[in-house]
Amino acid sequence: MKMENKRAGGILYLVVPCYNEEEVLVHAAEVMRDKLGRMASQGIISPKSKIVFVNDGSSDNTWKIISDLCGCDDVYSGLCFSRNYGHQSAILAGMMAAKEHADMVVTIDADLQQDIEALDKFVGCYQEGCEIVYGVRNDRDTDGFLKKLSANMFYNFMHLLGCNVMSNHADYRLLSKRALDALAEYREVNLFLRGLIPTMGFQSDIVYFDVKKREAGRSKYTLRKMVALATNGVTSMSTRPIQFITILGFLVSLFSFVMIIYCIIDWFSGRNVPGYTTSLVVSLLMGGLTIFSLGIVGEYIGKIYLETKARPRYIIESVIWKESKDTAQKGN
Ligand code: UDP
Ligand code: MG
């Protein structure tokens, strides 16, 4: 049942994580402001809607550009991390700061890869009563072969582990104030929002959007960052890898037991074969499995260690925050 325009005209805050985005930021800021301006003039969102940039410890001029933008136009606000904490922390910080002022928050990348025109659909779903709207890519044509392959492997593995992760859902998503208040209750340090947010429930919907080529600059997701995100995704969402180890350990023990009986019978029958190859293969296999299993268990223990320390998820060094005036109109 549709609730016609019951939530029309809400205040929308766009949260934009930025890491070394000096090449694209000025243009992206204009495009985003214009879009909010158009939506506000059509009465879809409130003219008090805003854009919040989160500088994730950039080493280039990103923060300088954000400060200049904030100085020129009240539609922009900025948060600056004390160092690079990563995309997930930047999104979280922006959402937590925005939730006090906004009815809904949309997180979107700074590089304009995610089609900003899809914002109308996100807001449309919110107006029909959704608390969470997930953006899902229509395709991965803009990604290279390796990125496509690793993303597919990751999503398949997550599904194998029974995790409710939406394939090809980037962090382009809308959360209502209610959903943000719920998210604020989660205290985990190692964040994997794509897995965490679907566990909150709430009425939700999907918006499919086209992915474009990066307007400028290069991808900030290095291989190391992608591996860290994927490991975090697995360890924060599932303990099944440890269960797999238990099953594997049981099967190997069963096999060893059969081998022991076989060797004893062999010994009694007087057939004393040197068995060099067998011993070598078995000991190498066992060594490999043991170290691999220890590694997986160690990964979880490491995460527990970090979680128990409960360090801050990010430190905000500077804030430029503009109180809500009717600013989004300026985009027209
Ligand atoms: N980003 C960030 N911190 C990081 C890496 C990336 O805030 O440590 C931001 C980046 O500025 C961009 C978004 O996260 O706005 C997505 O990054 P990118 O476009 O480089 O990733 P890709 O689209 O290549 O997966
Ligand atoms: Mg990108």
From TrEMBL:
It comes from the Bacteria. Its main location: membrane. This is Glycosyltransferase. Gene3D superfamilies: Spore Coat Polysaccharide Biosynthesis Protein SpsA, Chain A. Residues 14-182 form the Glycosyltransferase 2-like domain. The chain crosses the membrane at residues 244-268, 280-301. InterPro entries: Glyco_trans_2-like, Glycosyltransferase_2, Nucleotide-diphossugar_trans. Keywords: Glycosyltransferase, Membrane, Transferase, Transmembrane, Transmembrane helix. It comes from Eisenbergiella tayi. It is a multi-pass membrane protein. It is found in: Membrane.
